[in-house]
Write a structure and sequence with these properties.
The protein is mostly helical. The chain has nine helices and three strands.
Amino acid sequence: MSAPDRNGVRGEMRDKDGNPLIQRYTANDRSNHWITAICFVLLAVSGLAMFHPATSWMAVFLGGGQWTRILHPFLGVVMFVSFAVLVVRFWHHNKIDQADKQWMKQIGDVLNNREDRLPKIGMYNAGQKILFFVLIASMLGLLLSGIVIWRAYFAFYFPIDVVRFAALLHAFSAFVLICSIIVHIYAAFWVKGSIGAMVRGTVTYGWARKHHPRWFESVIKNKQRD
C-alpha cells in the first residue's frame, strides 16, 4: 500500500472491490473536522442547557450546571480555532464561479439527482460553498457575541445594552449554526460516500467522477503530468 502523492492519488491503494482510490482529505483535514464536530455537539447541548429550563437536563453532558457554564465558552474558543484552520485550508476551493451560478439555476436537477445535466463541479458544489460562508458568519457571530457575554472575563467591560444585544446575537447565531449543521449532516447521508471520505480520507474514481467531475479531472491531470 503506497502513500498518497502530493496530488492526492494513492497509486496502489484500492477499496474492497478493487477500485482505485483518490485521497480527498488528509489526516490533518479529518482531525480538524472531527475536533470541530465534537466541540459543536458539546457546545450545542451545553448551550441549550443554559438557554431554557426545559433543556437544562443537557447540562449532564459536561458534568452539571456549574461545569457547563465554565466549560462552554472555552469549548467555543477551541471550536472557532479548529474551524478557522479548516477555513484557511479550504478557502480557495469555495470561491463562487460561473458553474456554481448555473448549478443554482438548475436546483431542480440537483434535487432530482440529475447530475448528468449539471455543469461540472469542482471540489465543492454551490450548496456546499454557500453553507461554508454561512458557517463562517455564524462562527464569527458566536465568537464576538460570546466574548461580550463571557461574564467571568469580559462582560463587565461592556454596557448592559451591548451585553443584552450580544446575548440575542449569540442565540440567533447558534440557531443558524445548528440548522446549517443539520443540513450538512443530511447532505452527507444523501450523497452516499461523503461520510466515508471524511472517515477514511479517500473516495473511488467513480464517486469523484460522478459528483465532482472537474475536481476529478484536475487530480488525474496532475497525476499524469507527474
